[in-house]
Design brief:
This protein is of the alpha/beta class. The protein folds into three domains: about 80 residues, 434 Repressor (Amino-terminal Domain), CATH 1.10.260.40; about 45 residues, no CATH class; about 230 residues, no CATH class. It contains 15 helices and five strands. Strands 1-5-3-4-2 form a five-stranded mixed sheet, with helices on both faces. Strand 3 and strand 4 form a beta hairpin. The protein is elongated and about 105 Å long. About 30% of the residues are buried.
Length: about 375
């Protein structure tokens, strides 16, 4: 049965078939066609395309006409280009995935599903605020000297923290912060607000009221879920002339929210108000005490605990660390205007009581944050 072009993937494959069918060698075909052995070898190995002239010669040698040979070669070259493009796409995706958790970003809606490299790169350029239409080189994440990333991570997460993911999360928060309107930063207003922070923790709509006053002091706020392997609770950084505080809500608890926001406010107040700090990003896991922390982190912790009345709590419960009753916690909460979960949270953070005690006063925070502050 005569074979047709549809039986072969390439001209070279077809030539090998016809040579075998006729019991010929490459040298035989080269002599028949009056072309060099090298040229014949390249045709058989699909390293050289079938020209119209060669197709006409092959028509005289084998049972196909010149058109068949040209079409087989054309289809082969087209499929080869498709394969090359597919290979390039795979290679590009592999390069991008070294730096970005693409699937996670798509699930979060930070990126959209893409069909080719061009579409992917266009989205990446938009994400990083780049105008260049060329393929984006993500290796800048390896040697990013334009930012100073200062992060604290719990001992249990050391070695697992991914700096790339933290920088990606920061970029998303930074992009969103530029859309937020805020007053010119006023350090004195912020200082007053810091002294009143604890009172907002027990007020009806206290979170909303506090964030509104925070914006009036010139500090922008956004709520953005964390990326995997960042172990983020919050961050503080500058966006043009305004400081920005971003929280993740990783732990959906009132005490964690207020301690983290107090911690980040402390970074703003103490560490982001000088010119040298314009490229500094504070990335924090505030969920537990850390054995070794920097001076700046220690200062932020101390200031946050002062805002949340740590000294007053310790003095009040000094004789009750062994067993603290709910009534006593609520009494302190009423007299000092501080949410009861924060009272217990401060004690637990400093290892005076078990974190299990928090369950008695556990309260969700996510539903208390107005939608206008959400970056997703």
């Amino acid at each position: 049965m005569t074979k047709t072009t549809s039986d072969f993937k390439s001209p070279g494959q077809a030539l090998r078939h016809f040579l075998a069918l006729n019991g010929w060698t490459q040298e035989d075909l080269a002599h028949i066609l009056s072309v060099s052995l090298k040229h014949t070898n390249e045709l058989i190995k699909d390293k050289k395309s079938i020209s119209i002239d060669i197709a006409r010669l092959l028509e005289k040698v084998f049972e196909w006409n010149a058109y068949d040979w040209v079409m087989l070669d054309t289809n082969f070259q087209l499929s080869k280009k498709v394969e090359q493009k597919k290979e390039q796409f795979v290679e590009r995706k592999a390069e991008v995935y070294k730096y970005l958790p693409i699937n996670e970003l798509i699930k979060k809606g930070w990126l959209k599903p893409y069909k080719d490299s061009k579409e992917l790169d266009k989205q990446l350029q938009s994400f990083w605020g780049l105008s260049d239409n060329n393929e984006i080189d993500l290796s800048f994440l390896l040697n990013s000297k334009s930012v100073q990333l200062e992060y604290r991570t719990s001992e249990s997460y050391k070695g697992q923290f991914k700096e790339f993911n933290a920088l990606i999360w920061h970029q998303k928060a930074l992009t969103h912060s530029k859309k937020i309107k805020a007053e010119v930063f006023n350090k004195k207003k912020l200082e007053v607000l810091m002294s009143e922070l604890h009172q907002y923790t027990i007020q009806t709509n206290g979170v909303s009221k506090f964030l509104n006053e925070l914006t009036k002091s010139g500090v922008k706020f956004c709520f953005l879920s964390h990326l995997s392997k960042t172990y983020l609770d919050g961050a503080a950084f500058l966006s043009e002339i305004n400081p920005v505080i971003a929280l993740t809500g990783r732990y959906d608890r009132v005490d964690n929210f207020w301690f983290t926001i107090a911690h980040e406010i402390s970074h703003v107040y103490a560490h982001l108000t000088n010119k040298k700090a314009k490229d500094t990003i504070f990335i924090d896991d505030t969920s537990s005490a850390i054995n070794e922390i920097s001076k700046k982190e220690e200062e932020a912790n101390d200031m946050a605990e002062k805002m949340l009345l740590k000294d007053e709590i310790f003095e009040y419960f000094n004789n009750d660390f062994g067993y603290i009753t709910d009534d006593k916690v609520r009494e302190f909460s009423r007299t000092h205007k501080l949410h009861p979960s924060i009272v217990v949270g401060i004690l637990a953070f400093n290892k005076k009581v078990s974190y299990s005690t928090l369950h008695r006063f556990k309260e969700s925070i996510r539903d208390k944050i107005p939608n206008k502050y959400r970056a997703e």
